[in-house]
UniProtKB/TrEMBL annotation:
Residues 195-208 have a biased composition (Low complexity). This is dGTPase. Residues 180-209 are annotated as: Disordered. It comes from the Bacteria.
Amino acid sequence: MEQPADPRARRLFGGSARALGDLAASPFRADRDRIVGSPFFTRLGGVTQVVSPGGSGLLVHNRLTHSLKVAQVARAIAERLTADDRYRDLLAALGGCDPDVVEAAALAHDLGHPPFGHLGERVLDRLARQRLGLPDGFEGNAQSYRIVTSTEIGGAATIGLDLTAAVRAAMLKYPWTRLDHPDPHPRHLDPPPRGAAAPADDPASGSAKFGAYRTELDDLRQAREPFVGRIADWQQTVEASVMDTADDVAYAIHDVEDFHRVGVLQQGAVAAELTAWQKEHGHYRSVTDAALASTARRPGAAIERLRRQLHRKDGWIADDEAFAAAVEHVRREVVEGLLALPFDGSIEAEQYVARFSARWTTRFVDAIQVVREPSVRSGHVQLAAPQWHEVQVLKFVHHRFVLARPDLALHQRGQARLLGTLVEALWEWLLDPEEESRLPRRLHDLVELAEAELHPRTADRSARARGRAIVDFVALLTDSQAVAMLDSLSGRSGALWTDAFVL
């Protein structure tokens, strides 16, 4: 296959993967078609975004619909920036901003997210490191990168998606490994890039967020090669920055929309929090952190903690006037607007939610700018300060009034226990010598792939290969497949055949 002139369009495997999109004029559009046509993308329709659609009782976003909307926002941002004469030379100097690249990366960015949303990600990381002995653990972004770059098993056909360098680079929100690439590692910067810092309770574990496992490091280097000298080795490409910003925008808007539909967001509770802070923000600013923590349930205290957190983490952009204006704008739009009437499923209610979402999306897309020398905590593409603060306040509403709910915690603790039990059951199955020929075929293949990736002299090579294969296998399940597989392994299912095995 003849290589394109643009080095960003180089593929990983030389074009061995085939898809309908290969007929497209742009190699980046071909990438988009490969992603959308893959079973990894289809699977996202059965993976939780925040809460399981089955548990909510109503239609909420899943990982598939979220990815589609991120792609829509990302393309709108890219098209706006490339049409703006102010940014033409700067975008070219930084490595380019192709709307097709941005859209493809947005569609692919969540391919590796496991069952049960971010909860599943945290649980699998803990199990991978503490139970299965994998130093890299598990990370959803790194798993997405692993899916699109996995090469071959014993010389067999490619199982990755054979994407171009530009799209793979644009998927890298966090273009570093957990522990040692690049050198010096970005977690040692002061301040570190967003996501690069180690968890406060486990500083030796490496970055909390990272874009690739050690096994995909060569692929990461190849994808980033066209950008060497244009951006810092820990910095996102422009296209990755667009995708990351679009992800933040979609998350902030659509999660508020979801939980209004479900009836979880109550006007009174949100109004009490925001208006109490507006009335007493002068008092709150004089309260010590310790005193604020002791009055955590008092209306207004939580959003004051958000204000202080923004100053501690993002002093490069945090501004009290912009924060106060954002609180007021969210109060008007969400409390007095979206939440003023309960969602009743009527056409009028649906149209109101659609207008809310469209209005906020347009507001954020229009506020995007490109900067030559961003803060370490930001990419080259960023929201203007007023809208950046509005995103933080919208996300606060979701965290405070949804994620902190005891009923959601009860649901998620059950899901965490399910994943732990499933990983243990698969480990025992892999260790049973009499069952080797009856393992799920995909699990067997993943063990072979993991063994091929490890150096022959790696300590506990077989154990590590089995551990990585189990993590890869579980991460490819939908929510319902994870439940069905554990039911079968526990003897609770009366069904002989289940799609949990057809992977």
